[in-house]
Amino acid sequence: MSTAAPTSSSSAATIINSSDTPGPIEETIVEKLVQNLKPSYLKIANDSQKHAHHAGIRGATNVTESHFRIEVVSNAFEGKNMPTRHRLIYGLLDDELKNKGVHALQMKTKTESEIKK
Q: Which domains does the chain have, with CATH numbers?
């Protein structure tokens, strides 16, 4: 697992990748989420290998970076319900979902105050 540096000079984000050598799609997902959501915590796991044999993925051009699990803690979610939070992430990752072969995202989205409860 790899951990990345701060999202800004005033606060450090904990970023955990599923591998020490994430692929280009995983790197782009992390970059977009960090830039737009300024998370205090982001964990991303590439679960593509678990789904490579599924019928929906057969014949796909992208079988190595098609399924991801994402956990995000960000105050950008404050005042938003779960479907709205998920739509926000889907919007940020629209190109990856429509054009880059990302087939599925499993998400956990929390705010700082929800984590502290």
A: 2-116 (3.30.300.90)
The model's pLDDT over 6-47, given as tens digits with 9 standing for 90+, comes to 333 345 789 998 778 888 999 999 999 999 999 999 999 998
Q: What is the DSSP string of the chain?
A: -EE---SSSS-PPEEEESSSS--HHHHHHHHHHHHHH--SEEEEEE-GGGTTTSGGGTT-S--SSSEEEEEEE-GGGTT--HHHHHHHHHHHTHHHHHTS---EEEEEEE-HHHHH-
